[in-house]
Write a structure and sequence with these properties.
- The chain is α+β, with helices and mostly antiparallel strands.
- 18% of the residues lie in helices and 14% in strands.
- The strands form 13 sheets. It has a four-stranded antiparallel beta sheet with strand order 1-18-19-20.
- The N terminus is likely disordered.
Length: 774
């Protein structure tokens, strides 16, 4: 028995009784020129399919749905809380941009997200990193192009600083005066002294964050909102208050609003003592303050603001309304209307102040849900494409991309060449970059990416959202086969994968795992998911167990820094439990196998990666062509094991890719200053090798034209409405702390207010750099 026949014969049929029993199976792929491995990377073939980029405009908003007429409406599960959608959005925008939300009246939520949803400030933005040292720089340093990249293994650069965001000076909360003045006492921070503290991570954009299943780089903003903290159901103490009878008597309830990670995220910074708050200030204290002050009292609001225009004061600063009125218009009365008070920590508050965290979380979530940039040239082009059943392009309108070429030419942006000089960016560059982005990684190559192949970006930057950490992917699945896993009760938030054999390092670098090249026989233990190679190229070899691990889908270690410096999602939450779903369920469940984990596939293929027929699974199966185990699913699919290996340390959320040219510096450390530096980082296979490095990370060997094409593709993802700050991306005036001057006084940069029509000049890039500069 040889080849596919041997493979097919040794795969047990689905037997529900056998699923619970450990089974050791033997698989062979013995036909000449074949072996186990990843499938071919042609469109529509095998286990690493071509998943085309689609327009974000076609993705339903998970927080603000639309009715049959296309008008935005309140989501059904929010109707017990939200009385009026437009009023709630208005409240959310006012709170998001109001500097009075901070203890020193100088830092708003928007202060770290005012520029295309991110923070481009260049002075006093450094955090010393894990080693506690500024590595030759220091506080109040003004970043320059020569400071970047922070890390580059090939250039011998190894600076663990992070370009974060400056927040508040360290202080201790004292109280709130009758006029709403917050009283604090100064304190000294061990790292920053009396200067403004700086966050340890770069600020991600809030634009399109509505599509994230969890928020923050380490995912701590949970998908369910408890009304109080970022921790969702993990926080067993979180309670909100409501009236329980006509007399206005109050009771506490647990809040459990699903698909609300933005709300969980929004309630973190206002009481964070680095970002916005004095030590000891509670959300009820903040509510008491904000109910006494004039909204946006210190800031101008454009009369034509797309949301706040109707309540703008005109020539004076602020709004011609109060936060109490905005809350009353936005929320159902049982959450704010009562003559009874709430006692918290020995202090008395109104119901409205006691529930202020809930109002902040839900209203800012609804405002941020309007910040969707789905009209970029690439979104328009992607929406014009059609494909046949095999994934072949059958129609498109590439002229939709010419607006990018025209804009870059008008801005004088060209691509510097290694041999000297530079060249203009063309439509062909953008299309090349898209092709590289969409198609998976080819078989090993040392001479660039062959024509028709790609670099595998879309395997992680998946779907229209360009992130596998999206709500759609983690709830419904965007890859072929995901529906079958979901229907079978599998948890799409986790995946078990082959990690690949890394020691000794294969040369040239191994293609995407699963097993060493030429493997034609292995055994599989269904109780541990151990795949043990026993034959390579027809010759028996000492049994070699291939590493496998389970990870949180959408969170990856891409080698920015060593994981021991920052565990990312591998760290613990506020309750000493793992942030990672994988480790969490291994820890808290008596029987982790109740969580069914999808698994990576493997097939019998030719040397070119073409599946050998007949497949191991029936042609009608979503797993056709893959080796299946006793449960009828791909061999690594099955119940979570308490002691199995995980791959979560040093992993961070896969970011969205839209408007990237405006959101530098890049990566979670802010250690790259241009998009070319980011592309070259991935081309190098990352900067920091480690055991938990994603198995898809490896040197790519891209050519200069391919690197230019990738950058050009990323530039095509910029939405003009963001670039020119047109509604809904318009905003109030914002005084932004930008370092210290003589005597330690704040240097303030005033970002002018912008109305619905936007402004004539585009937003600048970080440090004004050419995105094609290395």
């Amino acid at each position: 028995m040889t080849g596919a026949a041997a493979l097919s014969a040794c795969v047990e049929p689905l037997d529900e009784a056998a699923v619970e029993q450990p089974v050791i199976s033997t698989y062979e792929c013995a036909a000449p020129g074949t072996g186990f491995g990843a499938f071919a990377l042609a469109p529509g073939v095998g286990g690493l399919p071509f998943v085309p980029l689609t327009s974000l405009a076609a993705v339903p908003n998970p927080v603000i749905p639309r009715n049959a007429r296309g008008n935005p409406i309140i989501r059904d599960d929010l109707t017990p809380y939200v009385a009026n959608l437009s009023s709630a959005i208005q409240l959310g925008k006012a709170l998001f941009w109001d500097v009075q939300l901070s203890s020193d009246d100088a830092v708003a939520c928007a202060t770290c997200h005012f520029h295309a949803g991110a923070d481009p400030r260049d002075r006093h933005q450094l955090h010393p990193g894990a080693n506690g040292s500024f590595d030759g720089l220091g506080t109040n340093h003004t970043l320059a192009a020569g400071d970047f990249p922070f890390t580059n293994a090939l250039l011998g650069l190894n600076v663990d600083n992070a370009a974060g965001s400056q927040g508040v000076r360290s202080s201790v909360f004292v109280g709130i005066s009758g006029a709403g003045v917050e009283q604090t006492q100064p304190a000294t921070d061990p790292v920053f002294g009396t200067t403004r503290q700086v966050t340890a991570l770069n600020s991600p954009t809030v634009i399109n964050s509505v599509f994230n299943h969890r928020n923050f780089f380490n995912g701590r903003a949970q998908p369910e909102f408890n009304g109080v903290s970022p921790w969702g159901d993990r926080d067993g103490t979180a309670r909100v208050w409501r009236t329980i009878d006509n007399a206005g008597n109050l009771g506490q309830i647990d809040l459990h609003i699903l698909t609300a990670s933005l709300a969980s995220q929004a309630v973190g910074p206002p009481v964070n003592t680095t970002e916005m708050s004095a030590q000891g200030r509670t959300f009820a204290d903040l509510g008491q303050k904000m109910l006494l002050v004039k909204p946006l009292r210190l800031q101008k609001v454009h009369s034509k603001d797309s949301v706040l225009g109707p309540v703008a004061e005109g020539r004076q600063k602020g709004l011609k309304t109060t936060y109490a009125t905005l809350i009353q218009r936005a929320f159902q009365p049982q959450w704010w209307s009562s003559n009874k008070t709430v006692t918290l920590g020995g202090k008395t508050y109104s119901l409205m102040a006691a529930n202020f965290s809930m109002f902040v979380g839900i209203s800012i979530m609804l405002y941020e849900a309007t910040l969707v940039s789905d009209q970029s040239p690439m979104d328009q082009y992607a929406g014009s494409r059609t494909f046949d059943a095999a994934g072949n392009l059958t129609g498109h309108n590439p002229a939709l991309l010419d607006a990018v070429v025209t804009r870059l030419a008008a801005q004088g942006i060209t691509a510097p060449l290694a041999g000297g000089g530079s060249r203009a960016i063309t439509r062909a560059d953008i299309l090349l970059g898209l092709d590289l982005f969409e198609k998976p990684i080819p078989l090993p190559s040392t001479s660039g990416i062959p024509a028709g192949m790609g670099v595998g970006c879309a395997l992680c930057h998946l779907g229209a959202e360009t992130t596998s950490a999206s709500i759609r992917n983690l709830q419904d699945g965007l890859e072929p086969g995901a529906t079958a896993f979901k229907d079978a009760g599998f948890d799409l938030r986790m995946e078990r994968m082959f990690m690949g054999v890394r020691t000794p390092a294969p040369t040239p670098p191994q293609p995407p795992p699963p097993v060493p090249l030429g493997t034609d026989a292995f055994t599989f233990d269904s109780s541990t998911y151990a795949v043990t190679v026993t034959s390579v190229a027809g010759a028996a070899v000492p049994p070699q167990t291939v590493p496998t691990a389970t990870y949180d889908v959408g969170w990856y270690n891409v080698g920015v820094r060593p994981p021991e410096e920052d565990l990312g999602i591998g760290a613990q939450d506020a309750f000493s439990l793992p942030l990672s779903w994988t480790k969490y369920y291994q820890t808290v469940l008596t029987n982790p196998s109740l969580k069914q984990v999808p698994g990576g596939g493997i097939g019998c293929v030719t040397a070119d990666g073409i599946p050998v027929t007949p497949p191991s699974a029936p042609v009608t199966s979503p797993f056709a062509g893959e080796v299946v185990g006793p449960n009828g699913k791909p061999i690594l699919a099955g119940g979570l094991v308490a002691g199995e290996a995980t791959d979560v340390d040093g992993s961070f959320k896969t970011s969205t890719l839209r408007n990237l040219e405006l959101t530098g510096p890049y990566l979670h450390t802010g250690g790259k200053s241009t998009l070319r530096q980011v592309v070259e980082f991935y081309d190098d296979g990352g900067d920091a090798a480690s055991a938990s490095l994603s198995p898809l990370l490896r040197p790519l060997g891209m050519t200069e034209d391919q690197i230019i094409g990738m950058v050009a593709f990323l530039l095509s993802m910029t939405d003009d409405r963001v670039l020119y700050q047109r509604g809904p991306f318009d905003h109030p005036e914002l005084p932004v702390p930008a370092g210290e001057g003589a005597g330690g006084a704040d240097l303030i940069t005033v970002i002018p207010e912008v109305g619905n029509a936007g402004q004539a000049t585009p937003l600048p890039r970080f440090l004004g750099l050419n995105p094609f500069e290395p």
